[in-house]
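input
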Amino acid sequence: MSTISIIFGSILLACALLIVAVLLQDSQKGLSGAIAGGSDTYYGKNKGKSKQKKLSKLTAIASIVFVVIALATFIVGK
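output
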C-alpha cells in the first residue's frame, strides 16, 4: 500500500465516523422547546445526557482527526 492510499483510506474512515456521530445526535430544540414548554424537570434535562456527551466528544475527536488528515494530505501533495 502506498502512503497516498493509506491517507485517503483514513480520511474516508474519519469522514464516515464524523457523519455517523453527527446523525446519531439528538436535535437541539432551541427556542421552540422554551416556547412550547419543554420539560424543565431534573429528569427531563439529564435524560440521556451521558449518551449525548459521548457523541459530542466523538464528534469533536472525529472532526479534529479529519482536519489533521486533510492538512497532512495538503502538505504531502505539495
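quick obs: The radius of gyration is 18 Å.
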